[in-house]
Design brief:
Blueprint lengths: L7 H14 L5 E6 L1 H17 L4 E6 H7 L8 E7 L5 H12 L3 E6 L5 H5 L2 E4 L12 H17 L4 H21 L1 H11 L6 E4 L4 H15 L6 E3 L17 E5 L5 H14 L3 E5 L13 H24 L15
Parallel strand pairs: 1-2, 1-3, 3-4, 4-5, 6-7, 6-8, 8-9
Helix pairs in contact: 1-6, 2-6, 2-9, 3-4, 6-7, 7-8, 7-11, 8-11, 9-11
The chain binds 6-O-phosphono-beta-D-fructofuranose.
Length: 329
């Protein structure tokens, strides 16, 4: 649902128009920190899969500035995201990109924030981790990325994006209802765990990464790592054992065979694997050429419900921090 008090739609159109007007665009950088960085990974995936002329790079904001890509300049678009608009590394990255002549487009919830001030174009979004609105950051990043692809290359998949995004809230509601029992069991079974791994591939790796670093490590102080399903066989599978917990996301996209291979192995040697399958969640109802670009959003919203319940069972609210925002770092 659109919030007509926000200028989001006009800002999104302005951003796409600016990208269209650039003489050359060779590179699109997706730059942020933490959970906002995780949101950039599906956008990088979209660009890699769809663009014939633009290379995509998702980078942590401090890494982006330190790396100072030699190609960064007038033929670059730098898309940045910060919920608060205040994360210093992201603000610095935006300033650096502007100085290099790149088109800077930022997504933030806070008008007038340092990031908003420093960027050429801002898009304001609404944030609710359990709802999937078309004016929240994950959907806006998909719309912006596909919008740029359509404006510069005539990409036609974009035509299916809005219809798919509009179906997601209903899909999430059904999935949450269908998983009610599994969510309660998961929370009880995992409330004393000190480690939970996440695993995925393709665009869903972003969701696995986000849940490993933001939810389990940051908000629950549970050890975790996001394992890429393709990389699982090249080191991580050695930690698999009957009592080691995993959450595995199974795609309906190009990476599904990678997920299948990892699931076959991990479920053979661990008794504690939670598999969330995009097909079983009802994502098969979406057009086949769009589904892999929107499934990370559905996995993210469903996992949030799993983790809210887990946090409750553990008596550890998702809002508690030891270091973040508590001290200098
Ligand atoms: O730049 P943002 O989106 O405000 O993020 C700031 C912080 O919020 C998180 O994304 C989640 O708490 C952290 O990972 C990050 O350090």
């Amino acid at each position: 649902m659109l919030d007509h008090n926000l200028p989001t739609e006009a800002q999104l159109s302005a951003a796409i128009d600016s990208a269209k007007c650039r003489v050359d665009v060779d590179d699109v950088y997706f730059v942020a920190c933490g959970g906002s960085y995780a949101l950039m990974l599906p956008a990088e995936y979209v660009m890699d899969r769809q663009s014939k002329t633009m290379a995509a790079h998702a980078l942590n904001a401090a890494e982006f500035k330190a790396r100072a890509p030699a190609r960064l300049g007038k033929s670059s678009i730098v898309i940045l995201c910060s919920l608060s608009g205040t994360t210093p590394e992201t603000v610095e990255a935006a300033r650096f990109a502007r100085e290099r002549g790149a088109l800077t487009i930022v997504l933030t919830t806070v008008a007038g924030s340092p990031l908003d001030e420093v960027a050429e174009i801002s898009i304001y979004y609404k944030h609710d981790p359990k709802r999937l609105e078309t004016n929240d950051a994950p959907a806006l990043l998909a719309r912006l990325t596909f919008g740029i692809l359509a404006a510069r290359e005539g990409n036609e998949v974009v035509a299916k994006l809005d219809a798919a995004l509009n179906q997601l809230p209903g899909i999430v509601d059904k999935a949450v209802a269908a998983h009610e029992g599994r969510i309660a069991t998961f929370a009880e079974d995992h409330k004393r765990d000190t480690v939970i791994y996440t695993m995925a591939s393709g665009g869903n790796y972003a969701t696995a990464y986000s849940y490993a670093i933001c939810i389990f490590q940051e908000m629950q102080w549970i050890h975790s790592a996001a394992i890429h399903a393709g990389e699982y066989f090249h080191g991580p599978f050695e930690i698999t054992d009957f009592d080691v917990p995993f959450i595995v996301l199974k795609s309906l996209g190009a990476s599904r065979p990678m997920d299948d291979r990892a699931i076959d192995f991990v479920t053979k040697y661990s008794n504690r694997v939670t598999v969330l399958d995009a097909e079983e969640l009802g994502l098969g109802a979406l057009a086949t050429d769009i589904v892999e670009y929107v499934e990370p959003l559905v996995f993210g919203a469903l996992l949030r419900v799993y983790c809210d319940k887990l946090a409750f069972s553990r008596g550890h609210p998702l809002t508690v921090r030891r270091y973040m925002w508590q001290m200098e770092y």
